[in-house]
Amino acid sequence: MSDILKKILNILTFTDLSIRKKFLLFSLGSLFWLIVISAIGLITMFDMSAKSKMIVDVIEPQEKTINIVLRKLRGASISAHKIALYKNMESVNNNYLNGKTRLEDSRSYLKILLTGGHINDYSRGTGQFYNEFIVVPIKDAEKRKFIEDVIVKADQLEEILTEMAEKRLSGTNVDVLIERLADYDLLTRDTVIVLNEYAISIGKELGTFTSIIKSRFNIAIVLISLAFGIAAILCGIFGMLISYALAKPIKAIIGQIKALSSGEIDLTKKLDVASKDEIGTLSNEFNKLMDTIEHVTSFKKIIEEDESIEDIYMRFGKIFIDDLDFGNCVIYEVSNSKNNMRIMYPPEAEGIELYCKRDVQLDCELCRVKRTGHMVSSEDYPNICKYYIDDVNNIHWCIPIMIGGNVGGVVQFVCGKRGVCDINDIRKKISRAKQYITDVQPVLEAKHLMKTLKESSFKDALTGLYNRRFLEESFENLVAGVLRRGTTLGLLMCDLDFFKQTNDVYGHDVGDMVLKEAASNMKKSVRASDLVIRFGGEEFLILLIDIKQGDSLGVAEKIRETIEESKVKIAGGFIQKTISIGACEFPADTQNFWEAIKFADVALYKAKEMGRNKVLKFTMDMWSEEKY
Questions:
Q1: Would you call the peptide bond into 442 cis, given omega within 30 degrees of 0 as the criterion?
Q2: 398 and 421 belong to one structural domain
Q3: How many C-beta neighbours within 10 Å does residue 599 have?
Q4: Which of 124, 340, 572, 609 is deepest in the core (most CB within 10 A)?
Q5: C-alpha Rg value of the chain to the nearest Å
Q6: Any residues with CB less than 8 A from the CB of 125 and at least 6 apart, and which?
Q7: First CA to last CA across the chain, in angstroms?
Q8: What is the DSSP code string of 179-219?
Q9: For residue 587, is the peptide bond before it cis, meaning its omega torsion is within 30 degrees of 0?
Q10: Can you count the helices (H) and strands (E) in the chain?
């Protein structure tokens, strides 16, 4: 019995209900009372609208019509008195016509009250427009009798008015006219009395409708206030119950988190929440997260002690395969200096194609992840990556490894075919994998920093250009890319004319200034994708990547003119230098890269022999040796 009571109490206090059901019930209750309040308001509004329509469409037009008729009768009465008083026949005739017209208008308006219709109220004398409205026919028998009586009296008034006008025009004695005028006034008074009685009945009806509207409005206010009060009390009670049901377990979670943050984190300490709703699920997932963090933290400590980047990638790959149970995983390292990518895991796949074309390894900018810095997935877009060579029905995810703000690596996971691969499971695994990737990034960044310091030996300290060592390290990828794309590589061997003389006359400081200025002008004269290399001393090698055959001479001439026009400021003035350039094109002139450099060098010395400050393209008649 106690268990049943406890269960009922838990239901009433929302303890065992999910958060969605808690708020769903609360919303349904609020919606119910909102509907009740709205229904009361709508019913009252429609009722008041009907009553108001009765007043506006029926009562007010009848009242306006009666007032118009009264005004017309008064005007006709004035005309009757003028007939009796005026002697001028024209004035008598005009007043007769005016009075008769007003009486005719009165009958017309009264008949409209019986039949219904459209009333235009205006002055026949001046033509001034007063009002325009529609009258609904009177249905009440008593009211219709009032109107019919008035119509009869109007006819009688017109007869008396006509008689007075005829007698006045025929010269009848004034005393006789005065007697008929008295009859006219008496009849007019009776008519007005009847109309006033009708107006009183309309006023009573208007008062009745007004009282009904006020009473209905007051009842609606009371009902709405009552419903609102009940709704507010219930919302308050159930709101407190829901907040209690949520706050209690959340406080328990906060307490555990504070305990973890108060000192050294004890990742083995778990949350203890007995709630059966989503908060309870949250506590269980939080405990799992602590387990994951503990594992990731220990993993980070281990890789920090690894000797090389290769060791880190190996450990990285094994975590994905062994611990996270990914079926297929490939880890690429991106070299921004060499513009390429290489497979670090599995190590036996280095240099071969696994799931991506070899082109991506030779040119990392072809990789969508490297180019965008975003995760790429074929889950929703099967053909998102045109360099993915495996079965397009296999789903793959590629996640960037960010190092120093740039993409330093790519982790690729390949699932099974669509319909076979468990998408929900793989998403959970990828979520965990991202935690490892996030933690490994600073370690890889530190390792890469050390590697970058080593690679700094590839730069010339004076000019900031790449040196000959860089060329020796990267020429293979450069040549492979040119051959793959089917383009031309232009090689310009450049040498400043009479540079030794500059050092001898002005000193090495000025010589260094000339070299730096020449290097700057060369970089400005070529594209950003081209390479300017300090080959040795005052000698420079410029590699024009992906040009059209024959274009190298135009670029060389531009460089020569820029150097010739450049002025280097020195103490007391400035100096100008010239440059000689030998050009060669790979693979048009030779299929051997280093032989192409030698051919460019031969063309350079031919240019010097011909007087310097010249550009010469290599031709085979310049070469007399069998081998370079």
A1: no
A2: yes
A3: 27
A4: 340
A5: 53
A6: 98
A7: 103
A8: HHHHHHHHHHHHHHHHHHHHHHHHHHHHHHHHHHHHHHHHH
A9: yes
A10: 16, 15
pLDDT digits (tens, 9 = 90+) for 434-482: 887 887 777 777 666 666 555 566 788 888 888 888 888 888 888 988 8
Residue with tokens 């010249």: 614
Is residue 191 within 8 A of residue 157, CB to CB? The reply is yes
Does a structural domain hold residue 609? yes
Domain with 427, as residue range(s), is: 314-455
Per-residue model confidence as pLDDT tens digits over 345-362: 888 777 777 788 888 888
For residues 61 and 200, membership in a common domain is answered with yes
pLDDT > 90: percent of the chain: 17
Q: Which one, of 99, 94, 118, 98, lies nearest residue 108 by Cα? A: 118
Q: What are phi and psi of 141, to 5 degrees?
A: -65, -40
Q: How many domains, the chain?
A: 3
Buried b (16+ CB within 10 A) or exposed e, 503-535: eeebeeebbebbbebbbbbbbebbeeebbbbbb
**Quick check: 415 and 435 in contact, CB under 8 A?**
no
By the 8 A CB rule, do 315 and 347 touch?
no
Residue type at 194 in one-letter notation = V
Q: Is 164 in contact with 184 (CB distance < 8 Å)?
A: yes
Adjacent-strand bridge partners of 540: 494, 534
Q: Is 588 helix (H, G, I), strand (E, B) or coil?
A: coil
487 and 423 inside one domain: no
**CA neighbor of 81 nearest in space, from 92, 71, 90:** 92
441: tokens are: 């990034």
DSSP string, 318-376: HIIIIIS--SEEEEEEEETTTTEEEEEESGGGTTS-SSB-HHHHH-GGGSHHHHH-S-E
Is residue 421 in a domain? yes
Phi, psi angles (nearest 5°) of residue 591: -90, 0
What are the backbone angles phi and psi of residue 610, rounded to the nearest 5°? Answer: -90, 10
Residue 124 lies in a domain: yes
Identify the DSSP state of 55. I
CB 383 within 8 A of CB 324: no
Smallest CA-to-CA distance from 378 within 407, 400, 320, 386 is with 386
Tell how strand 488-496 and strand 406-417 pair up. unpaired
Task: Report if residue 123 sits inside a domain.
Answer: yes
pLDDT in tens, 94-107: 888 888 888 888 88
Q: Are residues 411 and 467 in the same domain?
A: no
